[in-house]
Each structure stands twice: as structure tokens, then as C-alpha cells.
Amino acid sequence: MDQITLSHGSGGEETNKLIEELFYKYFNNDILLQKNDSSIIDKINGKIAVTTDSFVINPIFFKGGDIGKLSVCGTINDLAVSGATPLYITVAFIIEEGFLLSDLEKIVKSIGNTAKYAKVKIVAGDTKVVDRGKCDKIYINTTGIGVIKDNDYEPKVIDIKQGDKIIVSGSIGDHGTSIMTQREFFEVDSEIKSDCACLNYLIIDMINASKNIKIMRDPTRGGLANTLKEIVISTNKSMILNEEDIPIKDDVKNFCEMLGLDPLYVANEGKLVCIVSQEESDKVLEAMRKNKLGKDASIIGEVINDINANLYIKTTLGATKILQMAHGELLPRIC
Amino acid sequence: MDQITLSHGSGGEETNKLIEELFYKYFNNDILLQKNDSSIIDKINGKIAVTTDSFVINPIFFKGGDIGKLSVCGTINDLAVSGATPLYITVAFIIEEGFLLSDLEKIVKSIGNTAKYAKVKIVAGDTKVVDRGKCDKIYINTTGIGVIKDNDYEPKVIDIKQGDKIIVSGSIGDHGTSIMTQREFFEVDSEIKSDCACLNYLIIDMINASKNIKIMRDPTRGGLANTLKEIVISTNKSMILNEEDIPIKDDVKNFCEMLGLDPLYVANEGKLVCIVSQEESDKVLEAMRKNKLGKDASIIGEVINDINANLYIKTTLGATKILQMAHGELLPRIC
């Protein structure tokens, strides 16, 4: 038996076998091994952060990662940018009948390794199998629980003011572009790798450097432009970006140009953008650059005095454009 | 625009519109409206229970419920049978391109109403859209967070001993049978309704009646037999059921007979089975029967002295059979 069958999702003997022989092998921890309808975890001493995300990426294995690694990093990052220490995640699979057990094992192993790296425990899980053609190989939902302790840093979005600096942790557009080059119908021979990574340790370094980080976000779907535009809308403050300061790899730039895409709107899975007071921006930048995941961090713009609540970009040619919220969808299932 | 398009899952303008106009309309609460990558909830004063479940049921609307109601009840029940008070849930959608927005609204409304009834807040969400043919209409993941306070009841599985009574809260097999009769290829004209319901208030009544409930479980996939067999395996205690005491509706019995199915293995979504000390079993039974969801509760068997760790059933004909863990799968996507 080298494929997933419907009986693996029936809740019977085969489901139990899958849980015991595969999931417990890579997700082993005291909480999961309670084997109850709910897992009981200890008191959490602080405010609790919660986030959920489903991953439907295609292809499921890609340069720089796989759907398993992505599903852990994505949720860890949503917790960490909110100032929370990630503690626990749940993992729920929807698997297509006929999926290779060897591929499932690769993914489960990848989830286990990434969770271990990020120091989160997988505390609950679920497996559903759907008939052939009712899903595309495998979809994964992860829900994350983190803690914000009493004296922990918490973002202070309301403090955002003119002169605050916008910092991005590295080159943008890598993830989305990488995934696109690996879609069957593109057949592009490219070395662009997804930036898929857990940002929690980078964020610890940043918070240790300054308590004046006013907001952090991970620019996934919709890319850097959408993420900043959302901040502009919610804070009612205008911002301006300097195009020449935004790190974009040549490969990414070229591929996007070829397709008429703007890398500012392309998904990232291992980058963050933050807004920091002018005075402490160099300190934060320095801390970021010392971490491998922030070595290409750059100040890319600032909050300006403008009543229109717009996101502007000063292009390399010297013109100033307004960036809007993305609409439409070039390519689905990028994450 | 009356259908879901890929752009609804892009993270851009259309996603935001869906969130603002549909999700916030029915899921409105202070925590969700933080609109952050993670939602920050207050300290939880007690141990925390966590569970996750994906729902891939077909059909998505059925007699007695829909995928929305089911996805809330299922997770609420997993928390409640563990002795936890359900507090928060997350809701993540995977939607097929072309899905009717009116159907989505029905489901979202149903989720909102069920959550309100069960007094849980929807604290985080996610929406992914996959291309046509890459999912079957809609799949939903819910993850639940509950609390077990210091003086709350907690199941004491290790105390299970000979003479303890097995109580089921009502007729079994309703959900699975109902779903089967509503599958296109059966074309059976039946009035069997799913028992889909949130059991948290029934469980409060039970716990108030007795602190000697040793385990509670909701017999979903795999049905009553599988759930009890799992308890037999994990406790190493044998049990015997009396077939004539197990409440099964005539319609359910007839339909199952026609298909050669055993209702003991058919899924329930609004029933629980518990093991209670002999002395307090009548008290618990009485409390259950006073609640609408437990009005047909019955003592169906007991824990016996037998070293083989088997689940037995005494049939109406007087014979004693061993019930095994289910294997294989008659019909997928029953929940």
C-alpha cells in the first residue's frame, strides 16, 4: 500500500495506523500523545495570539521549500509579526485519494522539522481524504497559538507618525516568482528560490534592539504593496517608497518584466516589513542585517505628511506614482 | 458578481470586500475586528483545550444542517467532551472558483448563528480560492480553543472499572445515514435527518449532575463501535453492549439493513457516549433526559471483568459477538 486510500480518512483502523506510524513519528510530543478529542495544554501566562491559514499551493514541492514547511512558516510568521512568541500549532490535512504515501511522509517530515526549528509543538491534527479529483494532491490548514507576556513588546500602530521609516527585511517577490517559474505551463528554467522561512528569531533580534517598532507585517498574498496599502488605510497615514531602495533580485525583476508583473505585488513567505521611529531605524536595521534572514534589509521609504492616505512610490526615473490595492488575480494558489 | 472568483482569494481588493461585507456581517466581534495577522485575545485563566477539524462533507446542505453548522458543532463537541468550555474558534475556507456567493452567505450565516448559540467567538479566519475542479464546492477547517478552569470537571479515564455504565445520549447513526440518503446516486426519498448539534449545554447539565463521569466522547467518523473500541484499547478494559438497549431509529435501521451497513459504525454529529460509575449512572441519565439533546439517552452496556480488552455486544438473539475496529470506507466525506 503506497498510496492514500479513502479508508485512511475513515476514522477506523487505517486512520489510526497513519496517525501512529507516520504522524507520531515526526510530530512526537507529550501533548499530542494524549490522543484525545481535544489536547489539553498548560495555562498560558499572558495574552494569547491566534491565527489560521490554509495552504493550497501548487506545486507542493518547490525550490526553497514545500507545502509542509510553508504551512508552518506562514502561521509562525503571522504570530511573530504580532509580537507573539509562537507556542503551539494544529495541522489538518485534506488529501486526495491516490496521493503517494512517500510524498506525504516528506511533507510530514518537513512540518516536523520546521516546527522543531521554530520551537512550536504540534498539539492537534486531523486527516480527511477526498475522492480523486476533489482536491489537488494535498491541502493543509495550520492554526497557531502564541503568547504575549505582560512585559513583551506589542506593536503600537497608533503611534505611527511622519518621518517613521519603512524597513523591509530583504529582497521581495522571490516566493511568488519562484512558484510561477515552476508551474508546468511556464516551463521556465530558473534558479529563483522561494524565500519560505520562519521569521520568529529575526523578530526577537529586532525587538531586542528597539521597543520602537510600531508595526510588523509579513507581505504574503498581495505582496509588499498590498501590505503597506492596508497599513495606510488602517492608520490613515500616507507613505512614500523609494523604488531604487527596494531590494529585488535581478532574476525576479527579469521574470516579472517578461510577464508584465510588478514584483511589489508578488507574494513573499520569508520577509517582513516594519515601521520604526526615525531615531531607532538604524539600530533596527543593524540588528536585522546581523541575522541571516535580514542580511539584505533596507530602509525603503517613510511616513509622510499628506492628508490623502496614499501609498506613493518615487520611481527610479524620478516620477511619483500612487500604488493602489491589488485587484484581480494573476495566478491562484501561490500559498 | 454572484460567484466566487479566483480574485476573492488573492489577498487584494476583492478578498477585503468579501471579508468586510460578508464575514464581518455574520462573525462580528471585537477580537476579529482587530484585523491583524493574528488576533490577540485576553488571558485564559485555566488549562487550555485545543482541537482542529476539517469538514469536506458532501452534500454541503443536508436535512438537519449544513457544512457551516457542522463545522462549528464538530469542533465545539470535541472541546466539550474533553471537559472544556468552548471559547474561541477559527474558521478557514477553501472555496472552488464558481461557487455561488449566495450559498457562501448561507454557510457563513449558519456558522455565525451556531457560534452565537454555543457562545464562542470566531477570532480568526482565512479564505483560499482554488481553480474549478480542484475542490468540491467548499471545505472548511475550524480550530477550537476552550478552557478548563482549576475546579472544573476533568475526565478521569484511569478510574474506569468493572460495573461502570455506558450511556449514549440518543439514537445513533442518524447523521451518516441521512447524508447517504441525500447523495445523488442513492436517490432515496427519506426523512432521516442529521443529528448535527452542539452538545456543550447538555454536557454542562451532565457535569452538574455528577463528578463521576469518567470519559465522554462524540462518536463521529467510525460511529459508536469505533469510539468505544478506542476506549477499550486505550484503557485495556473490556465492555459489553446490549443491542436491544441501543436506540436506533427504524428508518435508520431499515436503510442500513438495505445497504448491509451496521449502524454501530455510522457517524453521529450530535451524540455523545460516556462512561459513568454504576452509583451515579441513573443521576446522569436523568439529567441527560431532561435536556432536549439527551431525551432518548439510554444505558447501553457496562465495563466488565475480562482480560481480553474486547468490545462485546449481546445481540437481540442472545448471542455475544466481538466488535472490531472498523476498516475500509463505505462512503467518504460524511463529515
TrEMBL record, chains A, B:
Cited InterPro entries: HypE, PurM-like_C_dom, PurM-like_C_sf, PurM-like_N, PurM-like_N_sf
GO biological process, one term: protein maturation
UniProt superkingdom: Bacteria
Pfam families in UniProt: AIRS (PF00586), AIRS_C (PF02769)
Residue span(s) of domain PurM-like N-terminal: 45-148
Domain PurM-like C-terminal: 161-307
Family stated for the protein in its record: Belongs to the HypE family.
The protein's name in its UniProt record: Hydrogenase expression/formation protein HypE
The gene coding this protein: hypE
